[in-house]
Amino acid sequence: MGGFIGKMKEDPFANYLGITIEDVGEGYAKVSMEVKENLLNFHGSTNGGAIFSLADVAFACASNSHNQTAVGIAMTMYYMQASGIGDRLVAIAREETKPNRLGVYRIEVLNDKEVLIALAEGMVYRKKDKLVP
């Protein structure tokens, strides 16, 4: 698999967590993950770090979708609703601004019933180099 989308799909951490990259467009990404037992916290709900990681993968894919290297410099996550084992979570990242150096993204994490589980905002710094030459 070639190009920058192929590079995104080879992400070792995303693959370790079972995150699937479903769609990437200019300034947009949709990724998903099934909540399994190893992603639960001691309350029996999805660990916040797993939810954050799902949102972060969507953020990374959307912000690098212009084939210009973008690195996260800030991300704020709001946890709205608990999720649990067997839930399929989907994170959708959308570009809010596209200036030369800084980009702002909104990321929604939804369950399979389209209930908002978490909401995040992220900012990237865009480097001059291409993700894939």
Automatic annotation (TrEMBL):
<protein>
    <submittedName>
        <fullName>Acyl-CoA thioesterase</fullName>
        <ecNumber>3.1.2.-</ecNumber>
    </submittedName>
</protein>
<keyword id="KW-0378">Hydrolase</keyword>
<dbReference type="InterPro" id="IPR003736">
    <property type="entry name" value="PAAI_dom"/>
</dbReference>
<dbReference type="InterPro" id="IPR006683">
    <property type="entry name" value="Thioestr_dom"/>
</dbReference>
<dbReference type="InterPro" id="IPR052723">
    <property type="entry name" value="Acyl-CoA_thioesterase_PaaI"/>
</dbReference>
<dbReference type="Pfam" id="PF03061">
    <property type="entry name" value="4HBT"/>
</dbReference>
<dbReference type="InterPro" id="IPR029069">
    <property type="entry name" value="HotDog_dom_sf"/>
</dbReference>
<dbReference type="GO" id="GO:0016289">
    <property type="term" value="F:acyl-CoA hydrolase activity"/>
</dbReference>
<dbReference type="InterPro" id="IPR011973">
    <property type="entry name" value="PaaD"/>
</dbReference>
